[in-house]
Specification:
single chain; 2 helices; globular; eight-stranded antiparallel beta sheet; mainly beta; 148 residues
Length: 148
């Protein structure tokens, strides 16, 4: 499975459960969300705009994904809603690794760097780094409609 196949299989509506653990600063948080993922072509206006923000040649992007979420976090009254666009830019020499460009809410921010790799076991690993952030996430399909 390559990065495009992974996101194509992810397209559609999903129910998501998530646990966040910030070891030094906050207690563990549990949340639930409804997520919609919509595939975008490599020449979609949102994809081209994001490539330009990151100063990457738009032709290097093979696709984009619009992600919309609506959820709650246990113990918080405010709903968690929003959207982002994610654009895949594979390494030309090894498409199993590459960059993921993404919008950061309404802010045109490019300080977060995200890279991906897909292993032979079809597990997608995403690593996001910023000034005060390091997040490593792993995603895989236990079955065609059950993603972990």
């Amino acid at each position: 499975m390559d990065i495009k196949e992974f996101f194509e299989q992810s397209a559609g509506r999903w129910f998501s459960q998530r646990t966040s653990n910030h070891i030094t600063s906050q207690p563990i948080k549990n949340g639930k969300s409804n997520i919609t993922m919509e595939m975008l072509s490599g020449d979609a206006p949102e994809v081209i705009k994001l490539c330009k923000q990151y100063q990457i040649e738009p032709g290097m992007a093979i696709f984009g994904v619009k992600v919309i979420w609506d959820g709650t976090v246990v113990g918080e009254q405010k709903k968690q809603t929003g959207s982002t666009v994610v654009v895949a830019v594979p390494n030309p020499e090894n498409p199993d690794i590459g960059k993921l460009l993404r919008t950061n809410g309404d802010v045109e921010e490019t300080s977060l760097k995200c890279r991906y790799s897909i292993g032979q076991d079809d597990v997608l690993t995403m690593i996001t780094e910023g000034k005060t952030l390091y997040a490593e996430e792993r995603f895989w399909f236990a079955s065609p409609n059950f993603r972990l």
